[in-house]
Inverse folding.
C-alpha cells in the first residue's frame, strides 16, 4: 500500500461521501466526454466539412486511447504517486477539451480527441488504486458502490445536458463545458483528496512497466474477475450501441420517449446499488456479485423469450431493464474482488482492469456488429452469450481471496 499518500477516510460521515463524490466526478469524465456531444453530430459534421459517420469515429478513438491512457497511467501512479498522475491527467483532458472547442478541421478534432482520452485515462485509473489503498473486502465493495451510485447520474444527464448546450450556445459550448468541468476538478482533487497527504516519497522500483503488468497478469486467481467484468460490461455496451435502433426504429419510440426508456435502466441500477450497500452488511462481495449475475442472466433469458415469441415493447422493456440494471450490484463487487488481490501494484492492476473492460468489450461488440446483421434477435443473442459466459466464470472459477492471500501480492 502507498502509505505516503494515503487519504484520510472514515467509513461514514461527510468526508467519506465528499471523497466518494470527487472520485465519481473524476470517473465521470469518460461518460461526459462520450455522451454530451452525441446530439451535436450533424452540426459538427457541417461545421468541419465532413460526414456524421466520420464524427462518430471519435467515439471509438476515445475508447481506445482511454484504455491506453489507463495502461500507461496505472504503473506511473504506482511509481510517482496518485496525485501527480491524477491531476496531470485531468489537466491534459481540460487542455484538449478547450482545443476541441476551437478546431476547424476534422483532423484537428481527432488529434485533440486522442489527447482528451489519454488525459481521461490517466485520471480515471487512479480512482480504483486510491480505493484499494484505503479499503479491502466489504469496505472496498461498499465504497465502490458509493462511487457507482453517484457515477450513474453522469450518463443519465449527459445527453440532455448536451442538447441544452447545443440549442442555447452551439456545439462548441459542449467542449467548453468539459473544459470548465475538468478545471473545477483540479483544485477539488488537489485540496479535497490530497490536501492533507504527506509529500509523496517514490517507492522502491518493482521492475519495468512490462514486469509490473506481467506480475498482475500472472495473478491467475484474479483473472476470472477481470473477464467477468469485461463480459458483463459487453452486455451493456452491446445495448448502448444499438439502443436507438431497438427503441426508435424497431419499436417506434418517439424522441421524447427514448430517453425515458433509457432512464429506466438507470433507475434500476440505482436501486440495485442501494440494495448492494445493505446486502454488504451480511454477505461478502463475491456472493452478491453471483446473485446479481444470476439475475442478469434471468433478464437476458426473458429478453430472448420476448424476442422469439412476443416482441412487444411492454414485455421487452422490463426484461432489458433487469439485464442492464443488475450491473448496479455486480460491477462494484466484481471490481472490489479483483482489486483485493493487489495491495501493491494496485495502480497497475486498476489499469489492467479498466483497459481490459473497455478494449475487450468494445472489441466483442464491434466484431458482432460487423459480422451480424442489425436485428433485435442478434443484438439480444450477443448480450445473452456475454451474460452466460460471465455467470459461468463466476460460478466455476472466481474465488475471492482471503486477507492472507491478497497480502502476498
Amino acid at each position: 500500500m502507498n502509505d505516503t499518500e494515503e487519504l484520510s477516510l472514515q467509513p461514514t460521515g461527510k468526508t467519506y461521501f465528499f471523497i466518494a463524490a470527487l472520485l465519481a466526478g473524476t470517473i465521470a469524465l469518460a461518460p461526459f466526454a462520450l455522451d454530451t456531444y452525441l446530439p451535436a453530430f450533424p452540426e459538427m459534421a457541417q461545421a468541419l466539412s465532413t460526414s456524421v459517420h466520420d464524427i462518430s469515429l471519435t467515439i471509438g478513438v476515445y475508447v481506445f486511447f482511454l484504455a491506453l491512457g489507463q495502461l500507461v497511467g496505472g504503473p506511473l501512479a504506482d511509481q510517482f504517486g496518485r496525485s501527480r498522475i491524477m491531476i496531470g491527467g485531468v489537466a491534459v483532458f481540460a487542455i484538449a477539451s478547450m482545443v476541441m472547442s476551437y478546431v476547424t478541421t476534422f483532423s484537428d478534432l481527432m488529434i485533440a480527441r486522442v489527447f482528451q482520452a489519454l488525459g481521461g485515462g490517466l485520471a480515471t485509473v487512479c480512482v480504483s488504486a486510491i480505493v484499494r489503498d484505503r479499503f479491502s473486502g466489504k469496505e472496498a465493495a461498499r465504497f465502490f458502490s458509493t462511487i457507482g451510485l453517484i457515477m450513474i447520474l453522469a450518463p443519465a444527464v449527459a445527453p440532455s445536458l448536451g442538447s441544452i448546450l447545443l440549442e442555447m450556445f452551439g456545439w462548441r459550448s459542449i467542449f467548453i463545458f468539459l473544459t470548465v468541468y475538468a478545471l473545477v476538478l483540479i483544485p477539488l482533487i488537489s485540496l479535497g483528496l490530497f490536501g492533507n497527504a504527506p509529500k509523496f516519497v517514490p517507492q522502491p522500483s518493482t521492475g519495468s512497466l512490462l514486469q509490473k503488468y506481467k506480475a498482475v497478469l500472472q495473478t491467475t486467481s484474479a483473472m476470472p474477475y477481470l473477464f467477468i467484468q469485461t463480459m458483463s460490461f459487453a452486455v451493456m455496451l452491446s445495448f448502448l450501441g444499438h439502443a436507438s435502433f431497438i427503441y426508435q426504429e424497431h419499436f417506434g419510440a418517439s424522441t421524447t420517449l427514448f430517453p425515458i426508456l433509457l432512464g429506466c435502466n438507470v433507475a434500476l441500477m440505482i436501486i440495485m446499488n442501494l440494495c448492494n450497500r445493505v446486502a454488504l452488511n451480511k454477505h461478502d462481495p463475491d456472493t452478491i456479485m453471483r446473485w446479481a449475475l444470476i439475475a442478469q442472466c434471468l433478464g437476458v433469458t426473458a429478453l430472448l423469450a420476448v424476442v422469439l415469441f412476443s416482441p412487444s415493447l411492454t414485455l421487452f422493456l422490463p426484461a432489458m431493464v433487469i439485464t442492464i440494471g443488475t450491473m448496479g450490484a455486480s460491477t462494484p463487487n466484481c471490481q472490489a474482488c479483483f482489486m483485493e488481490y493487489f495491495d501493491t501494484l494496485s495502480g497497475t492492476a486498476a489499469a489492467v482492469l479498466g483497459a481490459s473492460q473497455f478494449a475487450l468489450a468494445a472489441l466483442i461488440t464491434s466484431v458482432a456488429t460487423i459480422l451480424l446483421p442489425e436485428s433485435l434477435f442478434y443484438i439480444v443473442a450477443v448480450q445473452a452469450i456475454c451474460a452466460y459466459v460471465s455467470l459461468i466464470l463466476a460460478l466455476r472459477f472466481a474465488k475471492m481471496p482471503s486477507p492472507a492471500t491478497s497480502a502476498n501480492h
